[in-house]
Amino acid sequence: MPIFGALRKRRPAAPFCTAVVPAAGSSTRMEGQDKMLLELGDRPVLVRTLQALEACNLIHEIVVVTREDLVVPVSRMCRDFGLEKVTKVVTGGATRTLSVLAGIRSASPEAELIAVHDGARPFVTQELLEKVIRKAAECGAAAPAVPVTDTVKRAKDGVVEETLDRETLFAIQTPQVFEASLLKAALQKAAEDGVTLTDDCAAVERLGMRISLTKGDRANIKLTTPTDLDLGLGILIGRGEV
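^ that's the sequence the OP posted. Answer follows.
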């Protein structure tokens, strides 16, 4: 697809960071509705996500990865909402790993950091974005996380096997930010090995790299089910955005 906004020629003081936004899922748990294009308040979910990333001074370009049938609608939507940092909208792969790889391969050669952020996670704050990007610039790999508050049990065939110590458990959010060549190598290795991963940290962990955690935000939810949309509307009301 054509480039929508020219990359800035002036070299930024911070490392050049490309945000890769996976938005290629099938939305099976959204009861037949495509969550990326659903209206949340007065804007589609994906637009709210991209606007949050666009507003971050530490993000220099955005690459959206979506399904083949959504490339044209998403491209048009980015133009209509004036998303200048969106440089490309590309087709994703059969898995999250392959989709993120497609986004990385479409990023600017200048990219030193890659921030992978779920397209259906529209409530990310500027404070969270800046903290995790700065941490990744310092140590190479970082992700926001919130402590698990429920008691978590490991079970098999409906029978509890053990109760886990929740003091050591964290729910990991996005964006997950990595040194660009590290993430690319980790995802390529995972793809070659045929490993199914639910997030990008897991790919980097397989290479023995440690991930630094930053403070997450309980409002930084991923919209997955219709109930999540109700929660999302409540967040917007609480922020005075509707």
